[in-house]
Write a structure and sequence with these properties.
alpha+beta, 434 residues, 51% helix, five-stranded mixed sheet, single chain, Cytochrome Bc1 Complex, Chain A, domain 1, 2 domains, globular, 18 helices
Length: 434
């Protein structure tokens, strides 16, 4: 069964890669809230093709983009002069940096849509970086890296990702402090030249109303003006599971572990079966929080008020991108690490054996459908996901489409997915330094 899933992953990834080469790079969608518009630009990142300091380059490039865009809004020149009066009071410009893409979204009103496209073209594709901007961006990136390390959860999840996709560079969120400090303006310009290319940029416009045609033409012109792509995005290598990545952290007094396995590509029945398995495990009504013996296995002495705020075991969100995976995160007393792992895997094994009720399956169906509906409820979120879906070479399903797809996931498909997760399992661990 594990071999069959591996074959499915390979075939699906190849199909998705071929589809991506043919997908439209500009997607326009009407939105019923006529006064709201979001314009998103996604730039693909290839974790399997990282130049020197690739991890830090993506982080530094994202900070430079934010710096340039915010400076442009303050100066109020060109499209920014039009746009600045049409941005909402908060979250005017969003930047999401994930492992395989950077998405910049401008939130505006109907009459600001064209200016938003022009703004993105000006400040993402054509901005001139200066040494002063580089030092400012470097300082911010270092501060964000410190905050990221202090979160503990995200660095532990990063170890899981490294375990899942062995040998893939560029999967770290920030890289090392030394690499961030050593990167030059020439390095950053070379990175932009590799990323901002004709086949590696996707626009999505949501809620543009009557200006949709004009916005589409402006976005298509912006993409057409980019230099040709020399190195297209590649499909990720299939992970066979079983790897463990461990790091010592002298700042910790507990052990932190993330367990997980890759999922089939977005949109397949097996992918939605992964969502159903996640919803069986996650949340206050999920199996992990309902298992009080698992709390005993963790060996933690925590006040009840703290456990109400954040349960020590968390089922991670399934990321929308080219490398989806199911991940579970836990903190525990270091000597209880193996007991914790066994306690979590016990629930996956029970699901794989079919030990769940029809009511539990129905609740998981509903929770998965509701979660997707919330993911795409706001124009800014839908625009970003539409742009990323175009990068993946697929359409973005609506709430009813996903509700139907999830409701069609059978008991046997859920069992098979849980069994596959167990068979492809990898682990990332952070331990206190003894």
């Amino acid at each position: 069964m594990a071999r069959r899933l591996a074959l499915l992953l390979v075939l699906s990834l190849l199909a998705a890669t071929a589809a991506a080469a043919q997908a439209s790079q500009v997607v326009v969608e009407q939105w019923p809230a006529a006064d709201l518009t979001a314009v998103s630009l996604a730039l693909g990142l290839d974790p399997w093709q990282a130049p020197r300091g690739g991890e830090s380059l993506a982080a530094l490039y994202a900070e430079m983009l934010l710096l340039e865009m915010n400076a442009g809004l303050r100066q109020r020149e060109g499209p920014a002069a039009t746009l600045v009066t049409r941005l909402p009071a908060h979250r005017g410009v969003d930047l999401d940096r994930r492992r395989d893409y950077i998405a910049i979204t401008v939130n505006t009103t109907r009459d600001g849509a064209l200016a938003a496209v022009q703004f993105l073209r000006r400040f993402v594709f054509e901005a001139k970086f200066t040494p002063e901007d580089l030092e400012t961006a470097r300082k911010v990136a270092l501060q964000r890296r410190d905050a990221w390390l202090g979160s503990v959860l995200e660095p532990t999840e990063q170890l899981l990702v490294r375990a899942l996709w062995d040998g893939c560079a560029g999967l770290s969120a920030y890289g090392t402090e030394e690499s961030l400090q050593s990167l030059s303006l020439a390095d950053l310009e070379a990175f932009r030249a590799a990323v901002a290319t004709g086949k590696n940029a996707w626009f999505a416009i949501v809620g543009a109303g009557d200006a949709a045609g004009e916005c589409r033409r402006a976005a298509e012109e912006a993409v057409a003006a980019l230099p040709p792509t020399t190195q297209p995005l590649r499909a990720p290598r299939v992970a066979l599971g079983g790897r463990v990545v461990v790091e010592d952290n002298p700042a910790l007094d507990r052990a932190f572990v993330a367990l997980g396995a890759p999922l089939p590509p977005f949109g397949t029945r097996e992918y939605w079966a992964g969502w159903v398995v996640r919803e069986m495990l996650a949340g206050p009504e999920g199996r992990l929080q309902s298992d009080r013996m698992l709390m005993v296995r963790l060996g933690l002495i925590l006040p009840q008020s703290l456990t109400w705020q954040q349960w020590p075991v968390t089922v991670l969100p399934i990321e929308f991108g080219r490398c989806p995976y199911l991940g579970i995160y836990a903190m525990c007393y270091p000597p209880r690490l193996e007991l914790t792992r066994e306690g979590i895997l016990r629930h996956l094994a029970l699901i794989a054996s079919g030990d769940f009720s029809d009511d539990e399956l129905t609740r998981a169906h509903a929770r998965a459908a509701n979660l997707w509906a919330r993911e795409i409820a706001a124009p800014r979120d839908r625009a970003r996901l539409l742009a990323v879906a175009a990068m993946l070479g697929t359409d973005l399903p609506g709430p009813q489409d996903v509700a139907t797809a999830v409701a069609g996931v059978t008991r046997e498909e859920v069992r098979e997915m849980a069994y596959s997760v167990l068979g492809h399992l990898s682990v990332g661990i952070q331990l206190p330094r003894s």
